[in-house]
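Fig. S4 source data, part A: sequence.
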Amino acid sequence: MNQSAREGAFRLEDLWPRFEGWLARNTPEDEAALRPGASAAELAGLEAELGFPLHVELKALLARHNGVVPRRSSTQAGAFVLGHGLLDTDGIAEWRRNLADMASEAVEEGYEDEVVGRTAHERWVPFAQSLTGDLLFVDHRGDHYGEVGEISFGDPEYRWLWPGLGLMLHDLCESLEGMAPLPTAGRRPSVHEGRMLEWVTG
């Protein structure tokens, strides 16, 4: 199966209910942390802020849930995407501005090669954040369109994770349902106190 066929086989619209259903059954506080979907006006406002259309998978995710209730500590639920909490449209806009500013500053200051496309880019759209500030993003560059990456601040290069959100969700579901390691991300799932999902390194 080629990559385009694989992406078509793993549609976010089909996989998200499976993922959310697992949360509801096994980590109810995670499921309760999900916020209602973004409105058409909120999605249009985000796209206006970005200056380009959202990838269809990310737009579909936001239409289902506009992020999670913001976490203030590691004891709060909601970091069920590899230890990251989903951002709402405002958070996405803010973090994308930060990355665009970092890339622009690097170009102006003459260290573009160390930053642009490595730790920041104006077409990286973050969709989830950890308490330490690490980010998951959907790449909106032409050759990398739709890919999911992870930025760990302090690391010299972003980490490529999946060709798309649909494939990411498929692998998350498989890992959760079998409580099996997720080699792509180097983590394994663990249920903490019967209420929230943690992803343990290793």
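Fig. S4 source data, part B ends here. The helical segments are 3-9, 12-26, 28-33, 40-50, 56-64, 89-109, 112-115, 165-178.
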